[in-house]
Structures are given as C-alpha cells and as structure tokens.
Write a structure and sequence with these properties.
The protein is of the alpha+beta class and 149 residues long. 18% of the residues lie in helices and 42% in strands.
Length: 149
C-alpha cells in the first residue's frame, strides 16, 4: 500500500471520528434553551353542597407554561387508572373509570397552565384518590394531591 494513500485513509478516519464526536456533543448537550418544570401548589377540596365531587385547583405556579408541557395521572387508591394523559390532548381532559369522571378546565382559556385551572372529579364514592401532575417531557412528577376519605 502506498504511504500517501495510507496517510490519507488515516486522515479521513480521524476526521470522521472527530465529526462524530462533535455531532454527539451537540445532540447530548441540547441548545441550552430547555425549560425546567415549574413549582406548583395544588389544593383539593370537596365541592360545596355535594357529597360526590372534588375539585383539585392549581393554587400557585412559579412559571406559566403551555398545557402541552404537562400531563396527568389519576389513581384510585394505589391503582393507576390510565397512562399519563396530556393536558393539551383535547383542550379539556376527560378520564372516565369505574363510574368516575375527571375533567380538566383551562379557567382562562389561554392554553397555559395558570392558577385557578382545575380538575373536577365527579361521582366519587368514599375512598382515597390521587391526582399527579407530571412534566410531560420526562413523565416526572411535579406535584400531587391526595384526597377523599
């Protein structure tokens, strides 16, 4: 094999490895514009004058973000009802299980999660329930509310 050709092959391989390293570095570090999950406070209360309705309300939020960044899990006792459901799938989220219905309302209709947005759980028999607000990108829990009795 010619020395010049061998040197050329080594150079091309070294260049390809360097290029792959740069591409890998760019893909793993991201753009630096990632958004962190906000801090959220939830409050759960029985709807006044009813025995079978509960409302879970966003009481405070550190950053207002689009609904598509969030999903929700609902549990009856320790049993997960459905896989995570995006808050932006239908505008208003409905989960139905065992006669219960869970509805999400974007209170100001702006497409963002904001204080006063709420979840209404209807037809609730005695028992314990848990609503878990998730960061949709990772399905990690941001906050939860456990209620019932």
């Amino acid at each position: 094999m010619d020395r010049n050709f061998a040197a050329l092959v080594v150079s091309v391989v070294a260049l390809a490895v360097a290029l792959l390293a740069v591409v890998a570095a760019v893909l793993t570090t991201g753009s630096g514009n990632e958004v962190a999950p906000p801090t959220v406070t939830l409050g759960a209360a029985r709807v006044s004058g009813t025995s079978d309705e509960w409302r879970v309300t966003i009481q405070s939020l550190s950053t207002t973000l689009p609904l598509w960044r969030f999903s929700v899990l609902f549990f009856i006792g320790d049993t997960q009802v459905d896989p995570p459901v995006s808050l932006a799938e239908t505008g208003n989220l409905w989960i139905r299980a065992n006669g219960l219905s869970l509805n999400f309302t974007d209170s100001d209709g702006n497409g963002n999660l904001t204080p006063a947005d709420s979840f209404l759980l209807d037809n609730v028999p005695p028992g314990f329930y848990s609503l878990r607000l998730l960061w949709a990108a990772s399905h990690s829990q941001i906050q939860h509310a456990t209620f019932g009795g």
